[in-house]
Amino acid sequence: MYRLALFASGSGTNVQNICEYFKSHNSIIPVVVFSDREDSFVLERAKNLNIKSECFNYVTTTPENLLERLNKHKITHIILAGYLRLIPSEIIKSFKNKIFNIHPSLLPKFGGKGFYGHHVHNSVLDSKEKKSGITIHLVNEIYDGGRVLFQESTPVYDDDDVHSLSSRIHDLEYKYYPLIIEKYLLNQL
What we know:
single chain; Rossmann fold; 7-stranded mixed sheet; 7 strands
């Protein structure tokens, strides 16, 4: 049985999508949502989905404390879904090749510290790229540096703005993130 902890810092649309996808799965269970922000809407989403949630202070919570909390829930894998912080190396070592992230560009382009959400889309548009997309990857100690599991692209149109490009990227995230998690966990990737 695979037990997932989902980490998010914002509204949690990917968290909701993943939880709904695995709602009746026989071997993959979303167990708990962790957020580093008390005001993030993902905590409300977790409540509405009947998923446990925990908030933690990124500055004062030690990696050891976070590991204890993950172990308390018997977590096997961590899913980053709009989580904006670098995962401490102690967590990465304890969950080697068991932490997933999704990034809203075709890595290695437009990745690394500070590249998230609209910052990525603005950079793609400013660079006059012809395509963008998503990258689903395993997490290591470098921002957006882990092994790529999957990429999917979408064209960038001349009349695109951040909103229109972001909308197409979100559609790709919702379609592929839970599917790739499932395929990887079930050894189909």
